């Protein structure tokens, strides 16, 4: 039986909290890496030596190498590599020049040759290529979806309270999380606008969050909007401003964004496409309140009342101020491209209401769940032309998130998430928007946009299997390069296992788990799993590596999430990320994907 590890790690964990203590210094010196092995010091008496196993190609890799090379040959030519890429990896567009470029990069990396001197790969080079995620990653890295459809036909990478650095109640507001979100490909930024005398501040209202200025947020958006994607950025405004400050906000927006700002001449009857809006910024919010029209009516009624000269003078000034204010508010309204607002009647009525103008409707996660139970198809129909935004319920004070798949199943384009934290729900969000080159726009399945008679019913349960995804996990490597050798266990190498999940429609959800490989920094599992899929277009493959611990919670070894429709078949190098979604430098898995 495996020893109790966490009790042995307790001292190290405490030392991390207290700083570098004498005990940790001793431990650091006594547990050292020797040539070809790791030494672990136990109780200051015993040395435990573990040999570092060489990473060897799996048998399937050796077979593929032999299959695509000449009989008895120990090297693969560029033409043979091109054929391997085309036939085995299903990359039929691979050219001879592409294969030659791969060989050049692999040889230079492995043999440190600055000048290209060899035109073939041996089996170790071939294995190195397969384990290189930049050369042989699991999904395509270029934009390849049709980007000419209306905005309503896409899932859009959407942030919630994008200015918060932490929790929803007392954290600082800053432009920094906005910048990070844009750098990570987020396309919808939410700002809550509140008045402070003559200033406009961004903060989470009626909480202890410290504000950031509106102009600072706008400036940062302008600077970073298109660093990761050329496709449009949408700013959703939660507006609590007075008419005077709305006019001021309009001036700030137009002066900051200038020609980057897009707004139509009249209300939209269909949303434009992402392709037509490249490098443009749009505003989405509720139109200003209509009380100005009421005030105008009151003013006209007052004209019938007799006035003396002083009253007339004051009235003229008020009229001028009112006209100026009305012009400012009209200017603010003119900038709104995507009109939002609460329905005048019930939500059920709003979903079925047919209007010429397209619009945006916002629902909390709780409202969506409740409505989806009885009006799922109505939601899908609404999202064919209009935009649905879903946001976290108000009790998520710690900036946690909900499961996004219910929104996507119903065609919701803007599934708004708190991007500043981490967790399994956010990993799913990262996975969805790795699709389409990470540009922040993922085209919805045809079943969510086509005619009513073939429309996808989210409540349907007896759906036929469309295809089966076969996943083979061979091995993992890179932990010994990215972590200290006592990170997982102070007294022995780690015991890794992998969990594999399918996340999507309820009928497709599944979980598999490999065996535990003990005391090995380079675990070899060599296990295959099958996942039947009824709606593969909405499926995500979530992968999580854990390090077994008999006494406490298993340690985290890395994770990733991949969109199933984007998976490239054949052998693939799958890089892993930390809990916050930051990619590890070296940790990756060798896997094989196949659809049958």
TrEMBL record:
Composition skew (Basic and acidic residues), residue ranges: 15-31, 292-310
Region (Disordered): 1-33, 292-322
UniProt superkingdom: Eukaryota
Membrane topology value: Peripheral membrane protein
Compositionally biased region (Acidic residues): 311-321
Cellular localisation: Cell membrane
The entry's keywords: Cell membrane, Hydrolase, Lipid degradation, Lipid metabolism, Membrane, Transducer
Name of the protein described by the UniProt record: Phosphoinositide phospholipase C
